[in-house]
Each structure stands twice: as structure tokens, then as C-alpha cells.
Amino acid sequence: MSTSYSPRPPIWQLIRAVAPLGRETSNAEIKQLLLHEWPDLNQATINAQIAIWTVNRVGRVS
């Protein structure tokens, strides 16, 4: 008997999938959406990836 295994995409791809919501989203909302679907995700990694993908983050604008 074989079982099919579908690996979870990298967290950065999961965050990009949230972008088409078509509205502003908070970091907390993004984390909530991701953790609802994949509860085993590391929250520190989610935070780091959100920081990388945030366009208007203070450290990214001058």
C-alpha cells in the first residue's frame, strides 16, 4: 500500500501565495493564515520571511 506525500512548499512561497488577497494584510494575519493551514511552521522563520518580503519595512526604505 503506498501513500502519496506532498511536501510543504518553502515558507517564502507560502507568504507569496497570501499576496493575491488584494488588500493590505498585517503580519499577524499572514501568520494566522499560514499556521491555520500548516500548524508545524516555525513562527520565527515566518517572521523572518515576512520581514524579507515586506516592501515598506523601515530598514528597506530611506
TrEMBL record:
Organism field: Paraburkholderia sejongensis
Annotated ranges, domain DUF7669: 10-61
Name of the protein this chain belongs to: DUF7669 domain-containing protein
InterPro entries attached to this UniProt entry: DUF7669 (IPR056086)
